[in-house]
Write a structure and sequence with these properties.
single chain, mainly alpha
């Protein structure tokens, strides 16, 4: 057994640098976290997916801009209808308040401003508070018995 271990020990003694490199390829040494395979594969992955990442980033921005435009249009239309004294349900106001939360996140993400939107939303909030104080939201009239069942009253 000694004859077998002696040449291995001599080889390891002379080639300890290679042993460490080979072991480093397969194991992460703590606290020094260095894994050449992980770094190499990560580098290859970035090279292969670089254009796709850029395209996805552009698509995300386009989607967010489209979403901001849709929210802005909805809120401005709602403010316009409030200015014309059109009554709305509380649920409609709540929907606008929820849209504003989404809009604020997007505005912060892209660091943009829109004073027209801010003023329109402030007007909506004032109308909302007045409606809350007066309990004056639009409500649906009670349904007639035939309307509840979904029939028009005619017999089959």
């Amino acid at each position: 057994m000694k004859e077998l271990l002696e040449p291995i020990g001599q080889w390891l003694g002379g080639n300890w640098g290679w042993v460490i490199v080979v072991l480093g390829v397969f194991f992460e040494i703590t606290p020094i976290k260095f894994s050449p395979i992980t770094k190499f594969l990560g580098w290859i992955g970035k090279k292969l997916t670089g254009d796709i990442r850029i395209d996805l980033s552009d698509l995300r921005r386009d989607f967010d801009e489209q979403q901001m435009d849709t929210i802005r249009t909805t809120v401005l239309d709602f403010a316009n209808s409030c200015m014309r004294n059109v009554k709305h349900t509380q649920e409609e106001f709540d929907h606008i308040l929820d849209l504003n939360k989404k809009y604020k996140k997007l505005v912060e993400k892209y660091e943009i401003e829109n004073e027209v939107y801010v003023e329109a939303y402030a007007f909506i909030k004032r109308v909302y508070r007045k409606r809350q104080d007066k309990h004056d939201f639009l409500t649906a009239p009670p349904l007639e018995p035939d309307e509840e069942s979904g029939t028009d009253g005619a017999e089959n």
